[in-house]
Amino acid sequence: MTLDPFTIIMLAVLAVLIFFMFRNSRKRQAEAQKLQSSVVPGAKVMTNSGVFGTILSIDEDENQVLLETTPGTVLTVHRQTVSRVVEPVAVEGDDDADAPSTLEGGPEFGERVEDAPIVEATADDATDLKKKSDD
Hints:
Blueprint: H1 5-38, E1 44-47, E2 52-59, E3 64-70, E4 73-78, E5 82-85, H2 123-134
Antiparallel strand pairs: 1-2, 1-5, 2-3, 3-4
């Protein structure tokens, strides 16, 4: 039996697909192991449903986690529902505190209109707008 080039190419593609399948599987297992090792009491976590909280205790036998969402509110969830550990985000300084809120001088999102800087229109602005509307 002779192997034609088409068969060789198909076998090579199949081998590459199998290689990537095993590689991705190992990556996922390593990520899951890293997540499970970082799930410890005191860690701030997020569940699959988007609930944020702090782990109070972990029951290894029952695979349950006591999660405090707000002070005094404790939820019991399955350990596998913890989808990620939330790392604190470093906030950089307010370098743009003196910068105008927008290029046009309008209010920034959430800023009251009374607090926004007032931009005066000039006669040149009115002339430019009239020219643009005529075009």
